C-alpha cells in the first residue's frame, strides 16, 4: 500500500467507516461494504506510481481538510444552481439530487419506471442482489472507497418491455459552504426489452469552497434492452469529480454512452467500464472533453469482450485550451471465447494553445484469432489555411474558430439522438472557444 501519512483525509475516512451505522442494512450489503473497506485499506489513494494514474496526480486535490458525508449541515439549492443544468426546450422527466440526496419531485412517472433513493431501494432484496456485482473493488481505489462509504444516491428501474416516451433528466447538484468530500452511489436497471434515454447533468456552485465528488454508477442492460446514457459535466471551479460507471450487458442489448466534460471543474476523472457478458451485444462510447485554464480531464475506458459476435465502437474527441491537460486511456480487451468480435476505437485531439497537453493511449489486447479490431489517436492544431478561408469570406475570428471546433466535434455531436441536447452541446462548445488566443496567432500548423 502507498503511504498515506501525508493525506489526513485518509485517516478521516477510515475513522468514518468505523463510525458508520449500517444496522438498518441487510447482511448482503454490509458484506459488500466491508469488502470495499478492506480493499481501500490495502490500496489507499492512487499516486502517479499506479499505471492508470500516471498522468493524473490526484494527491494535490486531496490535501485540503474536507468534511465527509453527514458532517456538514443539510445544503439548500440556491436559485442560481438549477438553471445551470437547464437544457432549453427539452421535454423530459426531471429529478434533482442535492449532494447525492434525492429531492422531492412533482413528476408523474409512468407505472413502469421507478425512481427512488438508494436507501429506499435497499429495502428491495431483488435490487440489492444487483448491487456491487459489476464493480471490482480489488483494483479500483476510488470504487473501493465509494463501496465502503457511499451515502445517498439514486435507484432507477425500467420494467421489462417498457419504452419511455421522453428522456429522464437527472440533475446532480452539489453545493457546500465548507470543503466537502461526498460519495453518491447509483444503480440503474434496464430490464428485458426495455428502451430508455437518461441524461445526467453535474452542476455545482460555491467556488470559494472545494467539493470532491467520488461517485459510482452501476448499470445493468438486460436482454434486448436499449439504453442511451448521456452524461454532461458542467461543474464550476473548485469541484473535483471522480466518476466511475460499471456496465453489464446481456444478449442483443445496445448500450450507448455519451460523456461531455466541459470547462471549469478543477479535476474530472471518468472511469467507464463495459462488460459484454453475452453474445450479440452492441456498445457505443462517444466522448467529448473541452478543457481550459489549468483544468485536468482524464477519460479511462475499458471494454471487455467476453463472448462471440459482439460489436463495440468508441470515439473520443478532445479540445484543450490555455494550460489544460487531457488524458485518454482506452482499452479494448478481447477474450479467447470472443470470436467474431468487431471493435473500433479512436481518439482525436485538438490543441488550441501551445501550452496545452494531451496524453493519449489507445490499447487493444486480443486473445481471439477471428476478429476485426482497430485503434488510433491523433493530435493537431487548427489549420491556418482553414482559418484564412473562413476569414476571407467575412467570418470573424471568433466565429471562424468556433465553426472549426464544432466541425471537429461533429463526429461525436451528430450521434446525439436528442435534438435539443445536440443543440445545447454545440452552444456550449462555441461559448467556450476564445476569439483571441495569442498562442495561436501566426503559428498554427496544419493538422
How many strand elements?
Answer: 21
Helical amount: 10-25%
- Globular, elongated, flat, extended or rod-shaped: what is the shape? globular
Low-confidence stretches: 436-447
Sketch the major β-sheet.
11 strands, mixed
Beta-strand content estimate? 35-45%
- Distance N terminus to C terminus? 44 Å
Mean pLDDT, all residues: 91
Give the count of helical stretches.
8
Based on helices, strands and strand pairing, what is the structural class? alpha/beta
Structure in words:
This protein has 447 residues and is α/β, with parallel strands linked by helices. It has a domain at 8-278. Helices cover 19% and strands 37% of the residues. It contains eight helices and 21 strands. The protein has helices spanning 8-18, 27-43, 118-121, 125-128, 141-149, 384-391, 397-413, 419-432; strands at residues 67-68, 93-98, 101-102, 113-117, 153-158, 168-174, 180-182, 185-190, 195-204, 211-221, 226-233, 239-249, 254-261, 267-276, 282-291, 296-305, 311-320, 325-334, 342-351, 357-366, 372-380. The strands form two sheets. Strands 1, 4, 5, 7, 8, 10, 12, 14, 16, 18 and 20 form an eleven-stranded mixed beta sheet that branches. Helix 6 packs across helix 7 and helix 7 (397-413) packs antiparallel against helix 8 (419-432). The longest helix is centred in the first third of the chain and has 17 residues, at 27-43. It is globular, with a radius of gyration of 22 Å. The protein starts with 7 loop residues before the first helix and ends in a 15-residue tail after the last helix. Mean pLDDT is 91; it is low at 436-447.
Amino acid at each position: 500500500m502507498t503511504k498515506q501519512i501525508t493525506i489526513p483525509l485518509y485517516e478521516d475516512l477510515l475513522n468514518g467507516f468505523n463510525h458508520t451505522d449500517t444496522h438498518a442494512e441487510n447482511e448482503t450489503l454490509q458484506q459488500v461494504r466491508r469488502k470495499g473497506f478492506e480493499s481501500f485499506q490495502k490500496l489507499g489513494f492512487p499516486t502517479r506510481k499506479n499505471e492508470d494514474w500516471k498522468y493524473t496526480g490526484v494527491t494535490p486535490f486531496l490535501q485540503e481538510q474536507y468534511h465527509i458525508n453527514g458532517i456538514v449541515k443539510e445544503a439548500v439549492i440556491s436559485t442560481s444552481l438549477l438553471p445551470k443544468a437547464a437544457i432549453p426546450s427539452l421535454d423530459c422527466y426531471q429529478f434533482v439530487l442535492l449532494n447525492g440526496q434525492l429531492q422531492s419531485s412533482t413528476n408523474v412517472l409512468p407505472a413502469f419506471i421507478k425512481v427512488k433513493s438508494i436507501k429506499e431501494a435497499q429495502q428491495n432484496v431483488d435490487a440489492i442482489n444487483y448491487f456491487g456485482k459489476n464493480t471490482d473493488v480489488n483494483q479500483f481505489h476510488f470504487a473501493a472507497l465509494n463501496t465502503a462509504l457511499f451515502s445517498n444516491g439514486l435507484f432507477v428501474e425500467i420494467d421489462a418491455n417498457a419504452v419511455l416516451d421522453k428522456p429522464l433528466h437527472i440533475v446532480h447538484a452539489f453545493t457546500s459552504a465548507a470543503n466537502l468530500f461526498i460519495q453518491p452511489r447509483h444503480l440503474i436497471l434496464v430490464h428485458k426489452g426495455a428502451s430508455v434515454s437518461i441524461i445526467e447533468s453535474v452542476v455545482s456552485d460555491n467556488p470559494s469552497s472545494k467539493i470532491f465528488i467520488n461517485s459510482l454508477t452501476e448499470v445493468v442492460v438486460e436482454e434486448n434492452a436499449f439504453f442511451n446514457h448521456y452524461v454532461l459535466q458542467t461543474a464550476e471551479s473548485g469541484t473535483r469529480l471522480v466518476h466511475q460507471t460499471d456496465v453489464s450487458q446481456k444478449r442483443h442489448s445496445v448500450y450507448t454512452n455519451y460523456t461531455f466534460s466541459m470547462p471549469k471543474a478543477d479535476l474530472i476523472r471518468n472511469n467507464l467500464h463495459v462488460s459484454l457478458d453475452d453474445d450479440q451485444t452492441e456498445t457505443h462510447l462517444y466522448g467529448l472533453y473541452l478543457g481550459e485554464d489549468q483544468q485536468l480531464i482524464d477519460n479511462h475506458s475499458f471494454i471487455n469482450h467476453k463472448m462471440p459476435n459482439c460489436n463495440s465502437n468508441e470515439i473520443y474527441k478532445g479540445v484543450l485550451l490555455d494550460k489544460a491537460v487531457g488524458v485518454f486511456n482506452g482499452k479494448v480487451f478481447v477474450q479467447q471465447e470472443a470470436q467474431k468480435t468487431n471493435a473500433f476505437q479512436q481518439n482525436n485531439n485538438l490543441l488550441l494553445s501551445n501550452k496545452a497537453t494531451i496524453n493519449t493511449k489507445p490499447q487493444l489486447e486480443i486473445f481471439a484469432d477471428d476478429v476485426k479490431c482497430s485503434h488510433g489517436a491523433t493530435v493537431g492544431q487548427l489549420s491556418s489555411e482553414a482559418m484564412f478561408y473562413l476569414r476571407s469570406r467575412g467570418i470573424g475570428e471568433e466565429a471562424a474558430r468556433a465553426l472549426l471546433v464544432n466541425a471537429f466535434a461533429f463526429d461525436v455531436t451528430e450521434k446525439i439522438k436528442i435534438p435539443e441536447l445536440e443543440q445545447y452541446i454545440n452552444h456550449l462548445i462555441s461559448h467556450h472557444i476564445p476569439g483571441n488566443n495569442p498562442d495561436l496567432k501566426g503559428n498554427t500548423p496544419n493538422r
